[in-house]
Amino acid sequence: MREPLLASPSDLDSVPDRPAVFLLWAGEGRPYLARTALLRRRLRRLLAESDRASRLLNLRGVVERIEYWLTGSQLESALLHLQLAQKHFPDDWQRIVRLRPPAFVRVTLDNPFPRTMVTTRLGRGLFFGPFATRAAAEQFNNEVLDLFQVRRCEENLQPSPSHPGCIYGEMNRCLRPCQAAVTPDEYRHEVDRLEQCFRTGGASLLDPAEQARDRASTEMQFEEAGRLHQRCARIAEVQTAAGPLARSLDQLAGVAVLPSAHPEAIQLWFLIGGCWQPPQLLWLSEIAGAGQSMDRRLRDIVASLKPAGKPNPEHLALLTRWYTSTWRDGEWLAMEWPGKIPYRKLVNAIARVAYHKS
Q1: Where a domain ends, among 196, 227, 247?
Q2: For residue range 302-322, what is the model confidence (pLDDT) as tens digits?
């Protein structure tokens, strides 16, 4: 976190009227933390002469020092606000930031007979997401299970031929491990197919289906080709239902290209393994001479990144809220870390954000 700028409550004219996150310090106790789109206007409202009839918060005569950080984007403001809340309010920061955790589809790989479930809590197993709402995650979960024969029941199975089973087993949409219709290894193989689908974004299903369709068409088996074409279309629909952010959590990576508080720069915020990295500053003078030099600069930046350990739930919540909002500023570019970085797309996104900034 960069150092704050300082201001006196008696000299608000020197404070810029720009987006910022700020702390108001009294002589003792914890500070007042907030973020705003117009810093000077907000401070004047908080520190103006008190009107006894007003119910608005007034801190005139209490505040001794002002610390503030100018920000260039909504995402930067939210991340900085989160950092300051966790630093100065370690026991109460959740109430201050008021983040809604995103939903994930979890595969319970530690279960002898794995199943999927929708959750907002991270833990063991394979997680696929994030989804903006629980309803979106549940819809995707239902649709993706239609492509497999993985169980949907929630019970802890004790396989037995006398188990009554369920409607999905009768419809041949479940392998019926509850009735010992398959061995644990056979059921696990189906779960492995589901896991591969999540890890490849559906490609492990779509590619073989398209190849089989084309082969059937070449061999003039048109009825089979038509059936496979419908399956390809269904797989593509499920891929679309996942949304643009959803990935296997251990593969979730991308970069947000954002305006900077500095008038002559933009920021790159990399998300790797579910954690935001410290921002990287790019000067417009560098962007103006884009080409091989820009490509080299970006490769050096990527090489310097050091992924954090565990995914950060708050960082994922901020990504989801920013990306799905109507006030999103900047651009998001998903990527495969560390193997496939789309440098050409990244250069183009940087140029677009720089153009709008200028």
Answers
A1: 247
A2: 998 888 778 999 999 999 999
Count CA within 13 A, CB hemisphere, residue 96: 21
Segment (H or E) for 357: helix 343-357
Phi, psi (degrees; rounded to nearest 5) at 110: -80, -5
Which tens digits make up the pLDDT trace of 69-109? Answer: 999 999 999 999 999 999 999 999 999 999 999 999 999 99
Q: What is the pLDDT of residues 232-283, one digit of tens each?
A: 999 999 999 999 999 999 999 999 999 999 989 999 999 998 999 999 999 8
Considering the domain architecture, whether residues 92 and 182 belong to the same structural domain is answered as no
Q: CB 227: neighbour CB atoms within 10 A?
A: 14
Same domain, 230 and 275: no
Contact 342, 266 (CB under 8 A): no
Number of domains in the chain: 3
Full DSSP string of 48-109: SPP-TT--S---TTT--EEEEEE-SSHHHHHHHHHHHHHHH-TTTHHHHH-PPPPEEEEE-T
| Same domain membership, residue 123 and residue 240 | yes
Same domain, 201 and 260: no
Amino acid at 170: E
Q: Is 125 in the same domain as 236?
A: yes
Tell whether 239 and 257 lie within a shared domain. no
Q: What pTM value is reported for the model?
A: 0.90
Separation of alpha carbons 301 and 311, rounded Å: 21
Residue 24: CA count within 13 A, CB half-sphere: 21
DSSP state at residue 30: P
Domain boundaries, position 325: 252-357
State the distance between the two ends of the chain, measured CA to CA, in whole angstroms: 26
Looking at the fold, whether 108 and 241 belong to one and the same domain comes out as yes
* Amino acid code (one letter) for 358: S
Both tokens of residue 94? 């959740």
Note the pLDDT of residue 355.
83
Q: Are residues 243 and 256 in the same domain?
A: no
